[in-house]
Recover the amino acids of this structure.
């Protein structure tokens, strides 16, 4: 559930809640399976496609979270530069957030606008930082907001040097990760397409009545069940050996 909640936050859907997103994915999967069973007349295929559709929903959520995190990661250097300039000018963190809400990267303006609104409503900085971590849903943001929290508790000591050092670190990190993802992305994408291909063929074969009868018999159900297990195993292998290890959000909100 932590993986799912982290991806919901990473995809920018934290305002809807992880449970609502999960329920929506389950309902969509059941509808897809029901439509497939109604059209083809193969009920076992409908069940398999419903399970596959749920896996596709999770994969889509993960891809959206990765894409958004990649976008958010790419703009963090601008955020660090803005915070560094604000700290050098002696501006409080509330004004630094307000500048980012107005002139910061477009991918994060709504998050910082929400933070400014919450600070103006009287919430404590710690509560606002927790909300920001949930709304942004990205590990570099988690570290930045924890750095702001610690610096605030320590009276702002070493804040400027810490911001400068972390900004340099994130630039080096982004350069390395971008090079690795460009080499790995096409490999995993092709492998995932190969997992889905057999089910497209089965759906096409189900257009013939004799194939529908065969798939509705015990032997056909067994073949589809074995195929589903094999595809699930292959999909798991793709993630184990083909995907880059994802760094955990150590400082994510509980």
């Amino acid at each position: 559930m932590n993986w799912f909640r982290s991806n919901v936050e990473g995809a920018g859907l934290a305002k809807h809640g992880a449970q609502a997103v999960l329920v929506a994915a389950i309902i969509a999967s059941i509808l897809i399976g029901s439509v497939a069973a109604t059209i083809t007349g193969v009920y076992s295929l409908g069940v398999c496609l419903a399970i596959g559709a749920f896996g596709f929903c999770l994969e889509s959520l993960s891809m959206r979270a990765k894409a958004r995190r990649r976008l958010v990661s790419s703009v963090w250097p601008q955020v660090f530069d803005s915070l560094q300039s604000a700290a050098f000018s002696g501006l409080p963190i509330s004004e630094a957030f307000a500048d980012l809400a107005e002139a910061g990267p477009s991918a994060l303006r709504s998050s910082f606008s929400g933070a400014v609104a919450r600070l103006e409503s009287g919430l404590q900085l710690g509560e606002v930082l927790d909300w920001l971590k949930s709304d942004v849903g990205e590990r570099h943001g988690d570290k930045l907001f924890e750095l702001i929290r610690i610096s605030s508790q320590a009276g702002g000591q070493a804040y400027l040097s810490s911001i400068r050092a972390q900004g340099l670190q994130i630039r080096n990190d982004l350069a390395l990760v971008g090079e690795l993802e460009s080499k790995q992305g096409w490999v995993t994408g092709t492998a995932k397409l190969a997992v889905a291909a057999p089910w497209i063929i089965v759906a096409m074969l189900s257009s013939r009545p004799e194939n529908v009868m065969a798939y509705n018999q015990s032997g056909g159900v067994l073949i589809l069940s074995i195929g589903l297990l094999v595809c699930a195993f292959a999909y798991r292998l793709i993630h184990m050996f083909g995907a880059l290890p994802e760094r955990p959000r150590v400082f994510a909100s509980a």
User: Anything to note?
Assistant: The chain has a mean pLDDT of 82. Residues 111 and 132 are 7 Å apart (CA to CA). The radius of gyration is 23 Å. The first helix runs from residue 2 to 10.
